[in-house]
Amino acid sequence: MKILFSDSRAAEQNLTLEQQLLGGSDEVVLLYVNDPVVVVGRNQTIEAEVDCNYCRAHNIPVVRRLSGGGTVYHDGGNLNYAIICNSSEHPLDRDYTEPIVWTLQHLGVAASTGSRGEILVNDAKISGSASMVRRDRVLFHGTLLFDADLEVLDAALHGDITLAHKGVKSVHSKVANLKPLLHSIPDMATFVNAVISALTKYYSQQ
Q1: 27-60 burial, b if ≥16 CB within 10 A, otherwise e?
Q2: Rounded to whole angstroms, what are the CA distances from 97 to 138, 141, 154, 170, 199?
Q3: Residues 85-134: pLDDT tens digits?
Q4: Angle formed at CA 158 by CA 155 and CA 160, multiple of 5 degrees
Q5: Cα 178 to Cα 126: distance, rounded to the nearest angstrom
Q6: DSSP assignments along 80-135, one per residue
Q7: Which of 29, 33, 62 is CA-nearest to residue 147?
Q8: Residue 171: how many other CB atoms lie within 10 Å
């Protein structure tokens, strides 16, 4: 398993990179940090999920990804991961959160996987995820809230639910950042390095 970190902070570039890697043959974990952006699931109604007026006023772009799942907010305090691998006979039966949960536990965080593939710490969501299958390849990607601006997250993801119609609705949960639990990790750069080191150890044992 290759572990890559993207230097780009542009959401559209990183989502395109995910698709390029999905179309290849390498098994990869891609990590990246985006500038502030709202990313909407493939089958969602933007106005039902996003306060578009707030996002326009605060210069927060809204983009759509090709996978399903709910709407998420990214900023410089959020580390994104994408696990891209060859699929099995039943590709979505696999627990793709295992390496991420193992990594967090290795860093001293009591993380666990919830019923919808989210990652929880003290009953708060610190990671949401989505997935897609293309032929014999799987993309499983998610967020890790390290030091995100949770006030902006809440304001941006406050759409008009009456406009959802047939679109897939996000499931809202209590969220929290990891930074208060990681006393030896003061900033995102240190967190990224710690995650890469832990993932390298995890995959070396597989």
Answers
A1: ebbbbbbbebbbbbbeebbbbbbbbbebbeeeeb
A2: 13, 9, 24, 19, 12
A3: 988 655 566 788 999 999 999 999 999 998 778 899 998 999 988 888 88
A4: 150
A5: 7
A6: EEEEEEE--SSGGGS-TTHHHHHHHHHTT--EEE-TTS-EEETTEEEE-EEEEEET
A7: 33
A8: 11
The token duo for 142 is 């998610």
- Encoded amino acid at 120, one letter: L
CA distance 37 to 63: 7
Write the secondary structure of 145-202 as one string of H (helix), E (strand) and C (coil). Answer: ECCCCHHHHHHHCCCCHHHCCCCCCCCCCCECCCHHHCCCCCCHHHHHHHHHHHHHHH
Q: Residues 141-189: pLDDT tens digits? A: 999 999 999 999 999 998 776 555 655 454 556 899 999 999 999 999 9
Read off the DSSP letter of residue 67.
S
Q: Mind listing the pLDDT tens digit for each residue in 51-61?
A: 999 999 999 99
Q: Quote the CA–CA distance of 12 and 167 in Å, as a whole number.
A: 22
pTM of the model: 0.90
**Angle made by CA atoms 125, 145, 66, in degrees to the nearest 5:** 85
